[in-house]
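Q: Fold this one first, please.
A: Sequence and structure below.
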Amino acid sequence: MPHLTRVKSRLSIHAHRKVRGLLEGEYAAIHVGRGIDFNDLREYVRGDDVKDIDWKASARSRTLLVKRYVAERKHTVVLAVSTGRTMAAMNDARVAKRDLAVFVAGVVGYLATRHGDLVALVHGDAHRQHARPPGNGELHLERLLGVVHDAIRPSGPPSDLAAVLDYVSRAIRRRTILVVVSDETHVSEPVAASLRRLTAQHEVLFLTIGDLDPTVPGTGHDEPGGRPALRRLVDVDAGDEVPDWLRGDVLLQQEYAALVASEESQLRRRLEQLGVVHERVHDTDSAISAVFRLLERHRHARRR
């Protein structure tokens, strides 16, 4: 289980701070509502809670009817991962975005598995979207993570988060905890429209993977004479090489950093307007803390 082993070993590193227990506690706390599913209707009897009366059904039958519920044994966590080719690039920490996407999905999936919940997967790009049904156990989760890893490749189709979210709204009917993993830098109108529909039915959490700063000079093998050579940098989406003169410009670096900060602030603000909490993941070292903050912020948001 190479992907899940990596998740578990990283959690073990943080075990002395009891991070795993904190994460599990925060994960359990995001479950809201009755925790039970609607079953059928029966006639009202004295002592029933008036909140359970189905007024529309009662009006049709001209008899007071109340909803009956059955205990819900398991929750379902849906990992919705954008697997277009932009996720095959590197990020600011010189880490493959694909590896980060698999890792954060694995952390959330592992918490769900330990909690006894089911984990499902939806992934896709601009051309096709796919779903894997919910299941439990570490072997099932490892297979899902392998699917995500193998779906992300530089030669793949472009990313299309709106298409992935639309597929979720069509394919997933039961209420779930929906964890979106993407590298989007802003919320387009199609994505916003999809999120509005999804937040009406699901608990939606959003994790983004940062992009590589093209203005920072990366070094490769030394040139003759000992001078460090610039590592060749290619835009995965466009296929064009970033010119050397653009890299290392201090003013350009400052402007790019300001742009990234502005985009992240706008992204967070837009998602909060839609009722979705958000965290950005930079590397595996900070990913666990990012997931913890995400769960904690979602719990507090539900209380307001």
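Q: Good. Now the second chain.
A: Here it is, same layout.
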Amino acid sequence: MNRNRKVELSTIVGKGSKVKGTLFVEGGVRIDGKVEGVIESHGFVTIGLSGVANANIKADECLVSGKVVGNIVCEDALELDKTADLTGDIIAKVLKIHTGAVFNGNSSMKSEIKSSSLRKIIPVKNVEETKDTE
């Protein structure tokens, strides 16, 4: 994952915002607020430092700097920044975990992700004990 490349964002969920349900984005999305449910993108998903996602995430690429409780499926690469806190399972072609990141779950790295693998995302448990970092 090249941090210096330009990523087109079509949606931003700002700090203090909350979304419940399915968030489908054709391009890139940045989450700095809270999302509960499902995040699906045909682009790049970024969970910012203040972002909290109690959600399953399906995207081409994903960068997590905040907190995610749910499973992540990436067609290409997933990167967990040093401030990331992920509880859930991962399916990705490329996985990069920085020192300091917290990851509790299972990972599967595949050169080609079949659509049947995408359906194996299990529902996210309702997690209300997520502590605000605001």
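Q: Anything worth noting on the second one?
A: Residues 115-124, 126-134 have pLDDT under 50 and may be disordered.
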